[in-house]
Design brief:
The chain has helices at about 15-25, 50-60, 80-85, 100-110, 115-125, 155-160, 180-190, 200-210, 215-220, 240-245, 255-260, 280-285, 300-310, and strands at about 10, 35, 45, 50, 135, 145-150, 150-155, 170-175, 195, 225-230, 230, 235, 265-270, 290. The protein is α/β, with parallel strands linked by helices and about 325 residues long. The chain has a single domain (about 10-320), classed as Rossmann fold, CATH 3.40.50. The chain binds ligand FO1.
């Protein structure tokens, strides 16, 4: 099928995307995986650009992630944040650890000297020995705004400061001035398979699909598109997806997720706990529905899921990395 190693592109948000990336890295030959990451959650704190989803994927693949939290660096301290609070700084509700701040300082310095977010991310991932190419979806800001019963707010304000409590009325993806980065456009153009991670479609995947040119680039690639459902037993593994589907009147469960992706999907992997959804997902127009174990509690389960996804995407055993025993 391929004369070279297969090229796989993963579209990812935070925790679910990072775990899927870890499974794929363990299943593919070196150099095969590019992870295109949501930047709709990015925010400025204390003069620094914080990219939570890019950093979550980076720390997970670099073996630094705080596993229970799902974000931040394991064992991190918070001395800088403590001092900022003492000094009366604003927006100290966002918990930034010291090691994490080190990354944000480095990023700020590189951005200030004119580097793109893609370039600085490449430096960080190289230094942290990440075995995949991590590509921010855009080098331009493209924030997600959350329209709630308490007003319009930026994503981290709603999610962290207000603990995702205000009822969501609408989401606005401020993508008009942003462009898909050249590196993302190139990765999509040469992809053999595009995987959509079990991330929140509305908060993690749509902010990328809504970038001018992104959906078109996806539709014109020869690659198959396989999504993994973020729902298990009808509920999100992490985060506010299930409630958000209700609040936004999108429907519920896997049928709603499949409809959100519309005709983009060639295949949809749903959890065995939701096997009864096969008929509604098929009726929503998805050509291939695969039932599997989608919970990625550990590396082995993530690798198993990755192999299911790669197989559904047409990759044969000989395209994969040998299984670890
Ligand atoms: N999530 C929280 O619930 N509380 C926090 O204080 C918090 C801080 C934080 C700092 C850096 C980072 O990369 C992520 C952080 N997150 C925090 C997670 C983040 O808000 C979300 O998980 C993502 O934006 C959604 O994918």
């Amino acid at each position: 099928m391929f004369k070279r190693e297969p090229k796989v592109v993963l579209l990812a948000g935070g925790v679910g995307g990072a775990r899927m990336a870890r499974g794929l890295v363990g299943s593919l030959p070196a150099g095969s995986l590019s992870v295109v990451v949501n930047i709709g959650d990015d925010e400025h704190f204390h003069g620094l650009t914080v990219c939570p989803d890019v950093d979550t994927v980076t720390y997970t693949l670099g073996g630094l992630i705080h596993a229970q939290q799902g974000w931040g660096v394991a064992g991190d301290t918070a001395n800088a944040l403590g001092m900022l609070r003492k000094l009366g700084a604003s927006n100290t509700w966002m918990h930034l650890g010291d090691a994490d701040i080190g990354v944000h300082l480095f990023r700020a310095q590189c951005l200030a000297s004119g580097e793109t977010l893609t370039a600085v991310t490449a430096r960080i991932t190289h230094a942290l020995n990440v075995q995949a190419t991590i590509l921010p979806a855009s080098d331009d800001p493209a924030p997600t705004l959350v329209d709630t019963d308490q007003g319009v707010m930026r994503f981290q304000q709603w999610f962290v400061r207000h603990r995702a409590q205000p009822t969501v009325r609408a989401l606005r993806y401020v993508t008009e001035q942003a462009r898909v980065s050249p590196a993302v456009a190139a990765a999509l153009a040469e992809a053999d398979l595009v995987v959509i991670a079990p991330s929140n479609p509305l908060l993690s995947i749509y902010p990328m699909l809504k970038l001018p040119g992104f959906s078109e680039a996806l539709k014109t690639t020869r690659a198959k598109h396989i999504a993994v459902s973020p729902l298990i037993g009808g509920k999100a593994v992490k985060g506010p997806l299930a409630q958000m589907l209700v609040d936004l009147r999108v429907g519920s469960g896997n049928e709603a997720v499949a409809r959100l992706y519309g005709d983009l999907l060639d295949g949809f992997v749903i959890d065995e706990a939701d096997a009864r959804d096969v008929s509604v997902v098929t009726a929503a127009g998805v050509p291939q529905v695969i039932v599997g174990a989608t919970r990625m509690d550990d590396r082995q389960k993530a690798t198993q899921l990755a192999r299911t996804v790669l197989q559904a995407g047409g990759l044969r055993q000989e395209h994969l990395a040998p299984e670890e025993v």
